[in-house]
């Protein structure tokens, strides 16, 4: 990885350390309430994942572990990994309060094989805002392959690159129209953000406000995984999100949120195996 990428990823690490207390205080995550990790999962994710009870499951880039604990609730031997020490500390406390046995490890995702002592897993899970913080998907796919047992499965439930290209919210003075703000395809370098507020309703971020995101089209994701020797088993595109990103979204029968027609993909689910 280049020195520039190393610097940007360290900036992201500091930013997520600073975001953690903001997210802990937010209604968006609702940490002070009874944890309900099921609300972060589409039903089709569990259909694709299959039975996880008794399996070794690793959640990469897990942040507060609000999704990680769902695997422990379903009987999996669960590990979460994140590069933010503040997030790992918070996630450990959240799992303990829920009475769940989850191991959390603080490490950069690119160092996951070494950080986990060469341990292999039946399932590696990642997504919902994770891949955009990785500059090199080929290297990431190689790490995933090194973390999976033969026959193991990767599941990526990630924001669709079309959603990411629309940007987080309208600029001041703009209406509700959805406008393309960033490339759909990767390769043109990172998007730099300097924001005092995150995607939650929490207070302002104090300290490290700079972050960098990289665009990755679906073709890049698929090619990286197949290049690492994984087989693509299923790819879904969904028009729903677990929260209303735009004010004019309406609640669907699933309990998640969707835009008025015409429908566009907002989330995708990708199942691959080693």
Mind explaining what this structure looks like?
This protein is of the alpha/beta class. It has eight helices and twelve strands. The protein has helices at residues 3-24, 43-49, 68-73, 85-97, 112-115, 137-147, 161-166, 218-227, and strands at residues 56-60, 77-82, 102-106, 121-127, 148-159, 191-194, 210-213, 231-238, 240-241, 250-251, 257-258, 267-273. The protein has a seven-stranded mixed beta sheet with strand order 3-2-1-4-5-12-8, with helices on both faces. It has a three-stranded antiparallel beta sheet with strand order 9-11-10, with no helix packed on it. Strands 6-7 form a two-stranded antiparallel ribbon. A hairpin with a 5-residue loop joins strand 10 and strand 11 (257-258). Helix 1 runs parallel beside helix 4. Keywords: Methyltransferase, Transferase. Residues 58-154 form the Methyltransferase type domain.
Name the average pLDDT. Answer: 92
Low-confidence runs of at least 5 consecutive residues: none
Structural class: alpha/beta
SSE string: HHEHEHEHEHEHEEHEEEEE
The percentage helix is 25-40%
The end-to-end distance, rounded to whole angstroms, is 25 Å
The DSSP helix count reads 8
The amount of beta strand, in percent, is 15-25%
Assign an overall shape: globular
Strand arrangement in the largest pleated sheet? 3-2-1-4-5-12-8
Q: What does the main sheet amount to?
A: 7 strands, mixed
Count of individual beta strands: 12
Gyration radius over CA: 18 Å
């Amino acid at each position: 990885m280049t020195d520039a990428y190393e610097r940007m990823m360290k900036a992201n690490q500091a930013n997520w350390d600073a975001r953690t207390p903001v997210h802990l205080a937010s209604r968006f995550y609702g940490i002070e309430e009874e944890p309900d990790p099921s609300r972060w999962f589409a039903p089709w994710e569990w259909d694709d994942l299959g039975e996880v009870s008794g399996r070794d499951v690793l959640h990469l880039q897990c942040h507060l572990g609000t999704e990680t604990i769902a695997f422990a609730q379903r009987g999996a031997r669960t590990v979460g990994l994140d590069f933010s020490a503040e997030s790992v500390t918070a996630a450990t406390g959240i799992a303990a309060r829920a009475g769940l046995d989850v191991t959390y490890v603080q490490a950069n995702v690119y160092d996951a094989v070494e950080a986990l002592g060469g341990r292999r897993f039946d399932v590696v899970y990642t997504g919902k805002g994770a891949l955009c913080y990785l500059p090199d998907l080929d290297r990431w796919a190689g790490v995933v392959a090194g973390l999976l047992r033969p026959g193991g499965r990767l599941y990526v439930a990630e924001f669709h690159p079309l959603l990411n290209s629309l940007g987080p919210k309208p600029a001041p003075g703009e209406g509700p129209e959805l406008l393309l703000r960033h490339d759909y395809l990767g390769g043109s370098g990172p998007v730099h953000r300097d924001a005092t507020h995150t995607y939650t309703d929490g207070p302002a971020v104090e300290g490290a406000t700079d972050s960098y995101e990289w665009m990755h089209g679906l073709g890049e994701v698929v090619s990286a995984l197949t290049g690492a020797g994984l087989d693509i088993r299923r790819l879904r595109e969904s028009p729903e999100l677990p929260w209303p990103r735009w004010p004019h979204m309406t609640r669907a029968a699933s309990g998640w949120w969707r835009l008025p027609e015409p429908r566009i993909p907002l989330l995708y689910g990708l199942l691959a195996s080693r």
